[in-house]
Design a protein that fits this description.
The complex is a heterodimer of chains A (about 270) and B (about 180).
Chain A: H1 3-21, H2 24-55, H3 61-81, H4 83-104, E1 107-117, E2 125-128, E3 141-143, E4 148-155, E5 160-164, E6 172-176, E7 183-187, E8 199-204, E9 215-218, E10 230-239, E11 244-250, E12 259-266
Chain B: H1 2-23, H2 38-48, H3 51-68, E1 72-73, E2 76-77, H4 83-103, H5 108-132, H6 134-137, H7 143-171, H8 175-181
Antiparallel strand pairs in B: 1-2
Helix pairs in contact in B: 1-2, 1-3, 2-3, 2-4, 2-5, 2-7, 3-4, 4-5, 5-7
The chains are: A alpha+beta (about 270), B mainly alpha (about 180).
Chain lengths: ~270, ~180
């Protein structure tokens, strides 16, 4: 091996070690800059992904002809029953629910769209299209109108990475409704099955006797998660040597998550 | 000059791959294993480029990969920025030993290195996470973990030949490179 090559390898190793030794804040600043740089590409990717879904619907000419006939018949029926108006009404109701949730919420919410989800193997995270320009900061709760999604981690100008409640590192103080003193810590599991993520609620009292179907809410301890946010429902409970553990099904379906809210303050 | 252009093209391709990877859905039939394009692209460069340019490629690839997957938990970083640089320099150095064979036409070595690199990187990541979280959950090993580590390796097995031939087509590797490698 040439001396120059050894020297180059040495320099690369040195750079790597220096980078490994820099502080968390500096690493996060680097990631923030990287996220800001990649943001336009990520957004383009999200749009292309949407267009790709359109491409999945392409059919052969024969299929289209048959479908066309069918659609014409259907169209007449639809006119008769005024289905279109019903669809609009349903859409309207859905939007009104979302708007209503935002308005009646005790919190100041910033609506965000999910750009990517499950982007890494070992961490349960999503990327949303809101950043510090929209008032989003690190360690803020992310919710839907159904329940808790997770918390923001690194926040760049127009994007933020959200750690989902299904991640092992996302720990939430919680209580089970209807059981006195049934408080514990909810977290995800290290490796979650896709589409079937479960949560663990540890440090419960051994005699808590949680029943399947009981709801679990955030307790509001600490500065990140506000109290009263629905996390999930109890699937099973087991009494262990020192404590009790409940397995929970998350309230939010993370596989279809597309719109979320970031809690940026209180009304 | 051609090698410098290839390095630049690979850096752009790896950057694009990091973004594209995010949009590729996990493979349900492999317990949620993901598709990783970056190690396959890096291995191509490491097997074709001369050592100094391979080091540049390793630095950029490692740096970008670490930033893309940086996780800050309770004020501390789970896997620090820089570790991937070390991993890519090590893998790249091994690839350099195989470079003369690849330049003589042994393209199958690219498949081998892509598979090994993908699996090794994921296994190292999992090992580091497990050590860091040992106190809170011990050592976890199950079928899902095995799929998440070895599944992307299987995907790399399929992707590597396509990447190799497409890159070779674009790069225009020919007898001239072979002669250079043999010292003509």
């Amino acid at each position: 091996m040439k001396k120059i090559n050894i020297l180059l390898a040495g320099v690369a190793v040195l750079i790597a070690i220096v980078l490994m030794l820099i502080g968390t804040g500096a690493m996060q600043s680097l990631q923030r800059a990287f996220l800001s740089f990649t943001a336009p590409f990520s957004r383009t990717g999200a749009v292309v992904q949407g267009l790709g879904a359109v491409g999945q619907g392409l059919k052969t000419l024969d299929q289209l002809e048959a479908e066309n006939k069918q659609l014409k018949t259907e169209n007449t029926e639809l006119r008769a029953t005024n289905q279109i108006l019903r669809d609009i009404e349903a859409e309207n109701a859905k939007l009104r629910t979302a708007l209503d949730y935002r308005e009646r919420s005790l919190f100041r919410l910033v609506a965000a769209q999910v750009i990517t989800r499950d982007a890494s193997t070992w961490w349960s995270t999503i990327k949303i299209n809101r950043g510090f320009e929209d008032g989003v900061e690190a360690e803020m709760s992310v919710i839907t109108d159904i329940g808790l999604v997770g918390k923001t981690m690194t926040v760049s100008k127009n994007e933020a990475i959200v750690m989902l409640v299904t991640d092992e590192n996302c720990k939430v103080g919680a209580y089970i409704e209807g059981i006195q003193g049934a408080t514990g810590i909810v977290s995800g599991r290290r490796v979650q099955e896709t589409g079937a993520a479960l949560l663990e609620m540890n440090f419960l009292e051994k005699l808590a006797k949680a029943q399947a179907g009981q709801k679990v809410y955030t307790k509001g301890v600490g500065a990140v998660f506000q109290a009263g946010l629905l996390i999930g429902t109890v699937e099973s409970f087991q009494s262990r040597e020192l404590d009790g553990q409940a397995i929970l099904a998350p309230a939010v379906d993370f596989s279809t998550l597309s719109d979320v809210f970031v809690i940026v303050g209180v009304q | 000059m051609k090698d410098v252009l290839l390095t630049a093209a690979l850096i752009v391709a790896i950057f694009a791959a990091l973004i594209v990877q995010e949009f590729l859905p996990p493979l349900g039939f492999m317990s949620g294993a993901r598709i990783y394009l970056v190690p396959v692209l890096f291995c191509y460069g490491a097997l074709i480029l001369p050592y100094p340019l391979m080091i540049v490629l390793a630095l950029v690839t490692g740096f970008m990969s670490d930033l893309a997957f940086l996780q800050v938990v309770a004020g501390s970083v789970e896997i620090p920025v820089g570790w991937s640089i070390l991993a890519y320099v090590a893998v790249g150095s091994i690839c350099q030993g195989l470079r003369p064979l690849v330049l003589q036409g042994h393209w199958e070595l690219h498949i081998l290195m892509s598979v090994l690199t993908t699996i090794t990187l994921l296994a190292l990541q999992f090992g580091m996470i497990s050590m860091r979280r040992f106190e809170q959950g011990g050592w976890v090993w199950n079928e899902t973990v095995a799929w998440r580590i070895f599944g992307p390796g299987i995907v790399a097995l399929v992707l590597a030949p396509a990447v190799y031939f497409l890159a070779t087509l674009a790069y225009g590797r020919n007898e001239e490179i072979g002669r250079t490698a043999r010292g003509y």
